[in-house]
Design a protein that fits this description.
Layout lengths: L4 E6 L5 H12 L2 E4 H5 E2 L3 E2 L2 H12 L4 E4 L7 H6 L2 E5 L3 H15 L17 H8 L4 H11 L4 E4 L2 H13 L2
Parallel strand pairs: 1-5, 1-6, 2-5, 6-7
Antiparallel strand pairs: 3-4
Helix pairs in contact: 1-8, 5-6
C-alpha cells in the first residue's frame, strides 16, 4: 500500500467521489468520504469536534484519500496531504455532474452516504452548482493554509489525463 496522502476537493457536482474511487483503486489507498464523516443517518449532521477528531485520526495514518467538502475542521488533513487535487470546474460542468448523479441515485442513497440520506435535487442546489457558490469558501480555506501542493484541474478530461501521473508519484 502507498503511503501517499491525497485530498480531493471541489464544488458540488464535480465528481470528487468518482475520481477518488478511481484514484484509490489505482494507487492502493484507503478512501474516506467527507459525506460519510459529516452526515449520520437521516441527514443528522455530526458536530464539528467529532468531525475534526475523525479527520485527525485519518491524518495520523498512511496511505489515504479524503474527498469532499472542506471547512475549518479539514485543516488537519489539508495540512498533512502530499497533494490537494482541486476540481475547479466551470459551473455548467458541475451542474451537469450534479444532474447525472441525481439521475443515477434519485430517491436512493449514494454508496458513501448513511441510511436515510437519499439523493434529492432542488432549485437552490442547482443554483449552488451552476453559480459555483461554494467556491469562495474553498478559496478562503486554501488562502488561509497557503498549501504549495495544490493541483488545480479545470475539466474532467484534464483530471483523467493526470490520473496516471498521480498514481506514479509515490
Amino acid at each position: 500500500m502507498s503511503s501517499r496522502k491525497i485530498v480531493v476537493i471541489g464544488i458540488s457536482g464535480t465528481g470528487k467521489s468518482t475520481i477518488s474511487r478511481k484514484l484509490a483503486a489505482l494507487a492502493g489507498l484507503s478512501l474516506y468520504h467527507m459525506d460519510s464523516i459529516i452526515w449520520r443517518e437521516n441527514w443528522m449532521e455530526s458536530d464539528d469536534q467529532t468531525i475534526q477528531l475523525l479527520l485527525e485520526d485519518i491524518a495520523d495514518t498512511d496511505g489515504w484519500i479524503v474527498e469532499g467538502w472542506v471547512d475549518e475542521y479539514s485543516k488537519a488533513i489539508l495540512g498533512r496531504a502530499d497533494l490537494i487535487l482541486y476540481l475547479d470546474y466551470p459551473g455548467w460542468l458541475a451542474l451537469w455532474g450534479g444532474l447525472q448523479r441525481w439521475w443515477c441515485y434519485r430517491g436512493t442513497k449514494r454508496p458513501e452516504m448513511p441510511d436515510g440520506c437519499n439523493e434529492t435535487l432542488d432549485l437552490k442546489f442547482l443554483q449552488t452548482m451552476l453559480y459555483r457558490q461554494e467556491r469562495p469558501h474553498i478559496e478562503r480555506i486554501l488562502a488561509e493554509l497557503k498549501p504549495r501542493n495544490v493541483l488545480r484541474v479545470m475539466s474532467r478530461h484534464e483530471v483523467e489525463r493526470c490520473l496516471p501521473q498521480l498514481v506514479k508519484k509515490r
